[in-house]
Amino acid sequence: MNKTKIFIVFLVLLFAVVIGAQEVVEAIVAVVNDEFISLTDYISRHDNFSQMLRAQFQGEEFSEQYDAFKNTLMDTMITELLLLQEARNMGADVTEDVNKQIELIKEQNAFMSNADLIQALNRENINYEDWRENLKKTVLQQYVLGSEVSRHIVVDDSELLGFYNQNLEDFREPVEYTIKAIYVSNDGKSEEDIQARKQEIDGKIAAGEDMSLLASQYGEGPEKDNQGDLGSFIKGQMLPNMEQAVEGLENGDLTGWIEMPNGWYLLRLENKKESQIKAFEDVRAEIETALFNEKNETGVQKYLEELKSRSFIKILIPNPLEYK
């Protein structure tokens, strides 16, 4: 350890302990090069994020999310500080990017002005300047990772084709059914009334009357207003008894009457789109994104490990929550 680093640690220890009758000025959780992570910052980060998690999750799900957050918080804060230091070393100016992000946030939330945004933040007890500064830090970190990792990633055509050919079944489209229906409700009808109505509909279909018109005339479900159109369903989306009834049909064929808890359905298969593998060009962008993200994740981990290896990092309080 060089003299500068020894001196930094010495200063940290002076801040982190009680000397005689003096009060603690601030406890230092970790030293990262020539900067500190204070206990106050650590506890604040922990409490704010824990509160957010508690608002979103409950019970076992909360416990799992919280444990994952707590176990990585120290490393996360160290990594963020290292990236901010790198951004300063690179002379990064992200003012324009921050402004663009704010404009995008305003657009997405239908805020007409900065005043609307500030008002919304105030309702959540969030100070606008603090929020903007945190956004700036996030953009700076992204800038470093983009400059050092993402911009150097290349995914060539041979990789795309290779991935496609090795994972063809992942790009298979399931069978898709387009269905027309007539629904007869049980509500307020005797068994005899229901059977008579079904038989009347069957007779008109047998006589060649148009099912769309019959659905509008006799249907008692939401599909009545759409001339019986139920829409399209991929395999697995329909109720099992309905899917089983249509899966062996040809286009234009009818099922028998299908009993449901509150009534009966008569279905006609309008169109069956067979299962097929998507063409390479249709999934090219999807594959490129997946491979890029995979390379980027690996690259980011490698870069962060290298960044930490050439930095001075000293954890002084391994379990800061014990001081709460």
Please, could you describe this protein's structure?
The chain has 324 residues and is an alpha+beta fold. The chain has a domain of 100 residues: Chitinase A, domain 3. Helices cover 55% and strands 15% of the residues. It has 11 helices and 9 strands. The chain has a 4-stranded antiparallel beta sheet. It has a 3-stranded antiparallel beta sheet with strand order 2-1-9, with helices on both faces. Strands 3-8 form a two-stranded antiparallel ribbon. Strand 1 and strand 2 form a beta hairpin. Helix 7 packs across helix 11. The protein is elongated, with a radius of gyration of 32 Å. The N terminus is likely disordered.
Describe this structure in a few short sentences.
The protein is α+β, with helices and mostly antiparallel strands and 324 residues long. It is built from eleven helices and nine strands.
How far apart are the first and last residues' alpha carbons, in Å?
A: 32 Å
Helical proportion?
A: 55-70%
Order of strands across the widest beta sheet? 5-4-7-6
Question: How would you classify the helix and strand content by structural class?
Answer: alpha+beta
Report low-confidence residues grouped into runs of 5 or more: 1-24
For the sheet with most strands, the description reads: 4 strands, antiparallel
Discrete helix count:
11
Question: In CATH's first tier, which class of one domain applies?
Answer: Alpha Beta
Strand-residue proportion: 15-25%
Could you give the order of the helices and strands? HEEHHHHHHEEHHEHEEEHE
Gross morphology: elongated
Q: Taking all residues together, what is the mean pLDDT?
A: 90
Which second-level CATH architecture of one domain applies? Roll
CATH topology of one domain: Chitinase A, domain 3
